[in-house]
Amino acid sequence: MHLEIITPDKKLFEDEVQYISLPGIDGGFGILDKHAPLISALKKGTVQVTDKLSAKHNFEINGGVVEVLNNKVVVLAE
User: What is the chain's Cα-based Rg?
Assistant: First the structure.
C-alpha cells in the first residue's frame, strides 16, 4: 500500500509499505495491505512504519488525522 505522512511544513515520508501502526485517540491500531476505508483522529505518539523491504521507520507526531482509501494511506500530522 502507498503511504504519505504530511505535516504543515513538509512531507515526512512517501513510499510503498507493508504495515503501519498509529496512535489513535481511542488506542493504537495497525493497517495492513488492502485495509477497509477508514478515517480516524490521531493523538500524540509514534507512527511506526514497516516499508516494503522490511525496514522500520518511526515518526513522532503531536496528533492529526489518517485516511485509508483504495490502498492509499494519508497521515496529516501536527
Answer: 11
Pairing label, strands 72-77, 38-51: unpaired
CATH number reported for the structural domain that contains residue 60 in this entry: 2.60.15.10
CA dist., res. 61 & res. 68, Å (int): 18
Report the predicted TM-score, pTM, of the whole model to 2 decimal places.
0.93
Which triple of cell numbers denotes residue 16? 510503498
Give the contacts of 53 (CB within 8 A, at least 6 positions apart): none
Share of the chain above pLDDT 70, in %: 100
Count the domains in the chain.
1
